Amino acid sequence: MEYKDLTVMQLVDGIKTKKFTSESVVKYFIEQCKEKQHLNAVIEVFDDAVEKAVEIDKKISAGEQVGKLAGVPVAIKDNILCKGKKAGCASAFMQDFVSPYTATLVKKLEDEGAIIFARTNMDEFAMGGSCENTYYGACKNAHDDSCVSGGSSGGSAVAVAAGLCPVAIGTDTGGSVRQPSSFNGVVGIKPTYGTVSRYGIVAFASSTDQAAPITKTVEENEYVLQIMSGQDVHDSTSIKNDFAVDSPKQKIKIGLCRQLKDKIDGLKNSEKFYLAVKKLKEAGCEFVEVEVPHIENSLACYYVISPAEATSNLARFDGVKYTTRSKTAKSLEEVYVESRSQGFGKEVQRRIMLGNFVLSSGYFDAYYKKAKRLQDLLKIEFATAFSSCDVIMTPTTPDVAFKIGGKLNDPVAMYLEDLFTVPASLAGIPAISVPYAKDGHLPLGMQFMGAQKSEKILYQTAKLFQDLFKGGI
Amino acid sequence: MKVDIKHLESLSKLNIVDSQEDKFEQDLVKILNFVNEITELDLPEEKKTMGVSLSSLREDEVTEQEQCDVLANAPSKKDGCYLTPLVVE
Q1: Which ipTM score applies to this complex?
Q2: Which CATH code, of 3.90.1300.10, 3.30.930.10, 1.10.510.10, 3.40.50.800, is assigned to A1-296+370-473?
């Protein structure tokens, strides 16, 4: 038995009952990170991790109360703040940034005894679907190191899949937790918007940003999300979402979206998708066809709204406040322009310009305002669809992980990766990706979306699904 | 679809090197052609106000945040302030 084969709950239990120590667990995972450095999943292992583990072990020996994550090492994405630790968003601009405070979600994990022990690779400022747009070099897929990890939370997904940590935290704006989870055969959720406080997460598109756990199993995911979630005075969009108290459904009603049928039928792996439908039917689930009339416009909508919000959020990186300033700049204007031009990578620059285009005079009404109206409409359409089903099922991604470099020069091809993940992001509803099959040696994930605050039923469906496909399809 | 790349650079406070400008422009045009479908949609008039709903607002007060922790990340600082090149003569 190795620690990487245990669940988070088994690790906590083992540490609390002194079957093994937190110190040995943390040291084990640090060793795994070193051994699998070539995957480029982990950027840095924090040097105080073992010390913190020893403290937990001492508390347990002294009979003191310890929390629900006592002694468990957790890796966090490089855009999540933990006071005194570096958080660089995998950007040259932010490489020396030291967090001046701790994100609420990190505090909640630490309050339960978790040991934040490493930070993970990502697409710069969370913009990308391959974890190739990173200052630290591309993160590699846990199942094939010639393929991308997916992104933007690629490092977090690979870290869990390759056994570098029992749980990692990612952030999902348009699919950045679900897509890399699908590519690496692990479980990733995007919770209902507001479930996890955004305080201490570097903002990309504030109206859809959410942090979430990536784990090996659905049960662990639910366990960790419950700990991370909660309303927070520091994030006025955070909500109370006590999904743990909801009761499970007797019979799950699964919706298949009519507007996505042609797209799913045209996929290389559509056969596997329908085989999964068949198996779920045999397991007692009922299937219904549902309508989300504008779902096909989600991708275009997202690539107007998210750059618009990004351009505003990234305006503060000006060479004055955050670590890096161009050495050649003389005037204040040059400080702004040269620092930003040298500090931001290409994809980030592209999205800033795109955002400024859709917000600029003459285009604001046609693009941004229209996209916001479409976003409102999607929320209503999803709510209507969920009046006739509990969850909506789609593939998480159009295909398995692609080759490194395969889509790097074609931004639109890269954006199409988000086809199935973006609708839930825009509507602010929860969605989870669960692995279920493989194409060759590369994993495929299934996505379930639910109504707002329906995490309970989503996890229930995901567990049923996980158990049905444990041995593959 | 045409974009004025120089204007966008100016709005974005970015300077794209000349050799990359054409590729940037082509990519932006490609993305805009891709998102253009939303400009042609016939959507019902908006009912809600734009943006996210605010569940609660807190008092705006300085809490645990230490000024020196924040300033520690500044590339240039003096006497508890950010330091920039001279703006006003």
Answers
A1: 0.92
A2: 3.90.1300.10
